[in-house]
Amino acid sequence: MGVDLNEQLNLHPGRTLLLRVCGDSMLGAGIRHGDLLVVDREATPRSGRIVVALLEGGFTLKRLVRRGAHWWLEPANPAYPPLALGGNDDDRLWGVAVHVIRSLPGGR
Fold it and tell me: Phi-psi region for residue 103, left (φ > 0), alpha (ψ -120 to 50) or beta?
């Protein structure tokens, strides 16, 4: 019996994308360099969710956190600093990561 990945991963054409992770800022969240992320462009970005944001002309993957009245993008690796969001930065939140797909060693 086969598994329908569209159904299992809740993939919706036009709103769901697969993105390849570059970097190690989210290692503590179990997201590694080379992983594929399922990103939902219409999911609501809330505090605690891992989001894809467009900052300074590039994409970044971080956990969205609210402290008081301020929003932050926090890495899951102590080698990287948190990034403050302010002003109209909420429109830079590009999508919410909903699944991670990882290849096994030797599987690629």
Answer: beta
Residue of 25, 31, 73, 97 with catalytic role: 25
Active site residue 25: yes
Determine whether 103 is an active site residue: no
Q: Where are the beta strands (DSSP E) in 2-106?
A: 16-20, 36-40, 50-55, 58-67, 70-74, 83-85, 93-101
Of the residues 26, 52, 61, 62, which is catalytic? 62
pLDDT in tens, 8-54: 667 777 888 999 999 999 999 999 999 999 999 999 999 999 999 98
Contacts of 35 (CB under 8 A, 6+ apart): 20, 21, 100, 101, 102
